[in-house]
Design a protein that fits this description.
2 copies of one chain form a homodimer.
Chain A (H helix, E strand, L loop, with lengths): L8 E5 L3 H10 L5 E6 L3 E3 L4 H5 L9 E3 H4 L6 E5 L2 E5 L4 E4 L3 E3 L2 E4 L3 E3 L7 H4 L6 H20 L3 H7 L1 E5 L3 H17 L13 E6 L10 H13 L2 E5 L3 E2 L5 E4 L2 E4 L2 E4 L3 E3 L16 E2 L5 E2 L2 E6 L4 E2 L12 H19 L14 E6 L2 E5 L4 E3 H15 L3 H17 L12 H4 L4
Parallel strand pairs in A: 1-2, 1-9, 2-5, 9-21, 11-12, 11-17, 12-13, 19-22
Antiparallel strand pairs in A: 3-4, 6-7, 7-8, 10-18, 14-15, 15-16, 20-21, 23-24, 24-25
Helix pairs in contact in A: 1-9, 5-6
């Protein structure tokens, strides 16, 4: 630790889309890179909802960081949790040791926000990590198992009612996937219940679902959601979440499984930098991604609040994080040459959300697609960007199988289930 | 529950190899079948070590019981845990309710036995369930991550020493797979350690590994294990297991990860029947698989102690369980016709164990195979018997990928890792 290497030392915190792109860009460049993450894998978050709905296995959408970066001799992967950052001393503290840096890229992302109702987290888990996804999968499958066994009609209906809170892309995708699993995959597997009678309710506080999309696509998404049997309620907030259900517009809806897709808050590390953050805890960055007064520190992805030409900060999506990751890496190479970091421009190539089999919306700027064509584009883009050849083939194969048979393979209930087997009283 | 159905009611407890075969055999027959399991899937246990060593995902070797049996309208799958069996009242109690039966097949299998040292379970987990496999995978991968970070040379060596206690098929397979992952898969992924320097120690109390196999194959297995770099110690028992290591022949071996593959004890349900059990808790069954005095109750698989022509009970392997499952089902159909249950004969088609890439032994009765031919037979048989077309294709694809690239895809460390990150002190 004492003998400083000759080459500038770059520390990247976070191996998500932003951090990984930055690392790759710095591979084989005249810098020593340490990539720190508290998991040992890069997670392809856009497909996390497919793990939560039993279509894919965790390993299908996760690639070991060491394996992805194994060919770059100047990149070290460190499996550790960052506990503090001392920007004055240029030092990152982890659970194991302190790491000095010449340049720092912070890409630690975000978690769910329950808007002050933190007690809701256990009642309505969000979907950010593999652990979240496996927990939601367990709750979904357990709800049907429970409904199959319980003689009480009201309890059975509550077990077969699923509420998704938040109508952004994640909420829309979860609602569509749950409706499909109930109507097709599980339809014939039970003797005492008819899974296709399950209620799936999507609750969005805004006036429309996918409020970040153009209005015509929101409307199309709404129509497609209703086609797969999702009940969509907009313009209201869910409240009074309990084990037994939740309240919408003064009406109590008994429901066992609740899923949170309503809000994000940036990783706490942003607040420790001593610079301004927005209401969601995101670091307000300069237009070159550096933080005020510290050009050697850059913040990217979900952790950054970057205002382009509008007053709206860039959304927390993977293309933003990836472009910022590459830009931050290039900035470092530029600064090493004694030049100033350059302004970041986001090239928006569009956005997409899928509702189910042959159902999606895609905003490609020049064209708005709905239904089958949008779904094909979604499929193509997601396979294209999925990390690692092995993962691509494995996922394609499982999708093809599921498409032909309506079956989903990863329907495993793991971990201790005893607590879940009792009525929620 | 009150209105007894016209058709005889068969309850099968356990959806492993024995229980599942029995259920399939009774599918569409004039009986009402309830299959009870405390997991919602059938587990292909012979490949569990591949989940533990990051080659396969849990879902690759598990098939949802409901999906496997969905076409049989006379079979109900119940996801519950059996708490007691009242053979006088012909009733099975579960965590949810009581289920009456006319015929009962018990196939609840076995767990590890620590021979009275139950405190060793946490120190050296065994390999029976998916949870076990994921936990062992986590410990293996964490050991390398820990070694990469720790500056202390002795602690690093302890982290890179792996002890497998028990040299039966499971122990041999685990030892071979760990040696391979260290030498090939992880070889280039670290900067501060050389994973190929890992020590893998296999400890067997008997004079030879694979003591259930013919002697020439034991010797061949020993040779092949040494070829992949496994240190084999036979004729001694491991003792004094602690966090820091274990003792063999009076010598203390510092090692962080210990895996138990040394002994089994039958599921506790066997002892509750009121009939004789052997030392391992297995129910001593009649030669027709029924229990003394209760022809309507049959016990099969790992839970049964069945003596064929010799004094040795049949081994706890899947072919025995499957043949007994089919036989027990046929016995029920025979008894329904008013005839007596028939004697069970085991047709031993051979046994196999794999050591690694191109390395295995196979006892096919007429021929003893070693190395590549044995490995090919092993591959063929395991793919052939893997439940479900989807699982077969997924596993084949991943094996092909791993064979060509030496890579393993499922290298995920999940769950809270904080506790593991500290030195074991």
């Amino acid at each position: 630790m004492e003998n400083q290497p000759q080459k500038p030392r770059v520390v990247i915190v976070g191996g998500g889309f932003g951090g990984l792109e930055a690392a790759k860009k710095l591979g084989d460049k005249p810098v020593e890179v340490t990539l720190i993450d508290r998991t040992n894998y890069h997670l392809f978050q856009p497909l996390l909802y497919q793990v939560a709905t039993a279509a894919l296995s965790p390993a299908d959408i996760a690639a070991p960081l060491r394996a992805v970066l194994t060919d770059f001799r100047n990149i070290e992967v460190m499996f550790a949790e960052v506990t503090a950052i001392d920007v004055a001393a240029k030092r990152v503290s982890t659970t194991d040791r302190e790491i000095p840096y010449d340049y720092l890229i912070l890409a630690t992302g975000s978690r769910h926000s329950y808007f002050g109702n933190d007690q809701w987290e256990k009642l309505a888990p969000g979907l950010k990590s593999l652990e979240d996804a496996v927990e939601i999968r367990r709750r979904l499958l357990m709800a049907f198992e429970y409904a199959e066994k319980i003689p009480d009609e009201a309890a059975r209906r509550a077990a077969m009612t699923f509420a998704i809170i938040g109508g952004g892309p994640t909420g829309v995708e979860m609602a569509g996937a749950i409706a499909e699993i109930a109507r097709y995959t599980l339809a014939k597997d039970f003797k005492h219940i008819d899974p296709s009678q399950a209620r799936v309710i999507l609750i969005e506080g805004d006036k429309r679902v996918l409020s970040g999309f153009p209005e015509d696509l929101s409307e199309s998404a709404l129509k497609q959601l209703r086609e797969v049997g999702v009940e969509v309620i907009t313009g209201v907030h869910a409240s009074n979440l309990t084990e037994e259900g939740l309240e919408v517009k003064g009406e109590f809806i008994p429901c066992r499984v609740k899923i949170w897709a309503a809000g994000n808050t940036a990783s706490a590390v942003g607040k420790s930098l001593g610079v301004a953050v927005d209401r969601a805890g995101r670091v307000i960055v300069n237009n070159d991604l550096t933080i005020p007064g510290r050009p050697e520190v850059q913040v990217i992805g979900d952790l950054a609040h970057f205002e382009h030409d509008t007053d709206e900060p860039l959304p927390g999506v993977s293309p933003v994080a990836m472009q910022q990751g590459r830009h931050a890496a290039q900035n470092i190479l530029t600064m090493i040459e004694g030049l100033k970091p350059r302004r970041f421009w986001y090239r928006n190539k569009g956005s997409m959300a899928t509702i189910g089999r042959n159902k999606a919306v895609a905003d490609l700027n020049l064209a708005h697609l709905s239904g089958f064509p949008a779904w094909l584009v979604w499929l193509f883009v997601h396979i294209l960007f999925l990390v690692g050849f092995r993962n691509r083939v494995a996922v394609l194969l499982q999708w093809a199988w599921a498409y032909v048979t309506f079956n989903k393979g990863a329907r495993l209930i793991t971990r201790n289930f005893q607590a879940e087997m009792r009525p929620p009283t």
